[in-house]
Amino acid sequence: MAAEDLLSDQKLSLSLDAFPTLQLAKNIEERVGAALEDINKKYLGYASCDGGTPEDFGTSVEVLSDGPEFLSFVIYAGGYCKGAAHPWHGAETVNFNLETGFRTKFMEYLPAEWIDRDKSQQFRQVLFIRFAEEFSADCANAYTYALPYDYMVVQLGLDETRHELLLQAHGLNYVDTRCSHIARVPVEWLKEAGFDRKLTKALSPSP
Predict the structure, then answer these.
(1) Model confidence at 149, in pLDDT bands (50, 70, 90)?
(2) CA distance 160 to 111
(3) What is this structure's pTM?
(4) Domain 1-104: which topology?
């Protein structure tokens, strides 16, 4: 699904209306709605520079999956605070298990050997490097520098339209923004690697 701009005059407006195909039970709808409201408040709080107004502040949302198993989207935000060395930017991957209405990082759907708290991020980083969309020599150096210090954190999202697990890298230095922040893993690879069936089923093409 194409990215959807949900920002108007510095007001982020995330709501279930933005995801029209969602059909949720009342308690699940209330739970997801409350979480979206909290996310709104957080990003509206970012629209300030120590009480001032940033220049060119903007937020957009790319919907990756709108059910029925998961709601998955990426929030992009950025702006410039007067006097800062450079603009700031960021992206956050947000996922909901629509069976429970709670947010998930998909940790529970990883292969068993990936779930260890100390190793799971390393596995995701290695997976990101393997499937990164672009991998120039300069970017390889940037990734290599970021990994040992845990500067690069990899978040997971579900792109049901493309039947791929999306890996979104966060934490690279501003000067490394030319490097790819996205890697895509096809569902067939996930099945062979032993990812949970609930996740691979959500990404599999409809029969």
Answers:
(1) low
(2) 20
(3) 0.80
(4) Heat Shock Protein 90 (3.30.565)
